[in-house]
Design brief:
globular; 7 strands; 271 residues; alpha/beta
Length: 271
């Protein structure tokens, strides 16, 4: 069994989406198949304290988020023959194997302790590279191949919640300076998301810091919002309570619409 004792704070949260994807893989009605997640999850210890955060609701939310970002990625690859996908704070994402293998260049970027674990589970190739660095260490941008920015898709999945607002602004600003015209796919949480997750995350040693009212807060960073997918509006049948969910969404439409948004955005040039 691969050790994950080196995981602390935000890095340790990667085990939660990994478990969610592994469980999704076994479902008869799975939104996607992910044998890598199943194999990798079996190789890593699951701490009892994680049970205080993870439950069936997280499994559904993470699986729907994964599927939506998979679809954005697949569409990007299909429409850009010379494409590159860069997963920021990749954790143990296995999206490359679901939608990208043999189709595009791919970079997984995360802090060294996460990449060290990935190297025990995964194999780096010329097509599928790993970068061991913080997203906020701007030197990683020099490692991005020189292709037209329109062909680049950056993915920030389950990442930006853990940044200060000032850090999010700096990251987007740097991306706009270097890669204007590229696509950034991300997920953001609203007020209800904060109420649902913030205390659990803080107790876990991974405080969440950045939340939004809606996609207008994202556009204000200098991004053009191309598509918006409210998480709780997508695949409602997976909750098993479709009638209740529809009523609830009508009653609390704005709050629950903005619980978690999956966004496809474009990096605007810096004026």
């Amino acid at each position: 069994m691969t050790s994950s004792k080196q995981f602390t704070g935000v890095s340790r949260t990667l085990l939660i989406p990994l478990r969610a994807r592994a469980e999704e893989h076994t479902r008869a009605d799975a939104l996607f198949r992910d044998p890598q997640a199943q194999d990798w999850f079996r190789s890593l210890p699951w701490g009892a304290d994680l049970e205080n955060w993870y439950d069936w609701r997280y499994q559904i939310c993470i699986s729907v988020r994964t599927k939506l970002l998979d679809d954005i990625t697949a569409q990007h690859i299909a429409t850009h023959p010379n494409s590159l996908v860069v997963e920021l704070g990749a954790g143990l994402s296995s999206r490359y194997y679901r939608v990208g293998k043999g189709k595009t260049q791919w970079i997984e970027l995360d802090v060294p302790e996460v990449i060290d674990t990935r190297l025990t589970l995964d194999t780096q190739t010329s097509e599928h590279r790993f970068l061991a660095t913080s997203v906020l260490d701007w030197a990683w941008m020099d490692e991005i191949p020189a292709i037209p920015p329109e062909g680049i898709l950056f993915i920030a999945e389950g990442l930006l919640y853990y940044f200060e607002e000032s850090e999010v602004k700096q990251l987007v600003q740097r991306l706009r300076e270097r890669f204007a015209g590229a696509t950034l796919a991300l997920d953001v949480g609203g007020i209800v998301f904060k109420q649902f997750n913030a205390n659990k995350a803080a107790h876990f040693g991974a405080p969440m810091k950045w939340f939004v009212e809606d996609e207008r807060d994202v556009a204000a960073l200098g991004l053009s919002v191309v598509k918006v997918f409210p998480l709780l509006n997508c695949y409602p049948e997976r909750w098993g309570l479709v009638t209740w969910i529809n009523w609830w969404l009508i009653f609390w439409r704005s709050l629950l619409r903005n619980f978690c948004l999956i966004l496809e955005t474009r990096l605007n040039p810096v004026n």
